[in-house]
Amino acid sequence: MLAAAGGALAALPARITLNGIAGVRPGMTVSQVKARWRTPVRLEDEFGSQCSATAVKARATEGYAIFLNRRFGAVFLRKGATTDTGITIGSRLKDLRRAYGARLTSRPNKYTPGARDFFVRRATRPRWELRFDVSAKGRVTTIGFGNSAVRLVEGCA
Questions:
Q1: Which residues contact 105 (CB under 8 A, 6 or more apart)?
Q2: For residues 143 and 83, is the Cβ–Cβ distance under 8 A?
Q3: Where do the domains of the chain lie?
Q4: What pTM does this model have?
Q5: Burial 56-76 (b: 16+ CB within 10 A, else e)
Q6: Residue-wise pLDDT tens for the chain (157 aa)?
Q7: Which of 2, 43, 71, 92 could form a disulfide with 52 if both were Cys (CB 3.0 to 4.6 A apart)?
């Protein structure tokens, strides 16, 4: 169960890029994320203090964020997400391929037969990534951004 981040995230919805979302980038502290998103961040420890999660909900934006050792690792949005290339929840796989081309890599989704998780990595350091979970019907269902935490399969696992 994730603890809800109360209040409105004044900085969200915002475009997700390979450089961050609403001023938040991997490695930021809980306090820094609170200040950028202008909201409480209530972490629920899933695996001791090493990995914690918090719900993200603001206007049309919904999902969750992962913190590793109390530092921002990744965010996964299932509603209200838009990238700087115009990819949104519900975009088609062909739109994703047109936007990112040969930069896309993928792996089978662990839980949904026929679904795939696609990744785009920054060309320069730090090597943050965007993640797009695509259904078996070829539609984007989740958009994520972060460091290696964006490759986690479920929550902190």
A1: 118, 119, 120, 121
A2: yes
A3: 15-149
A4: 0.89
A5: bbbeebbbbbbbbeeebbbbb
A6: 233 344 444 566 678 999 999 899 999 999 899 888 877 778 876 556 688 888 888 777 889 999 999 899 999 999 989 999 999 999 999 999 999 999 999 999 999 999 999 999 999 999 999 999 999 999 999 999 999 999 998 877 7
A7: 43
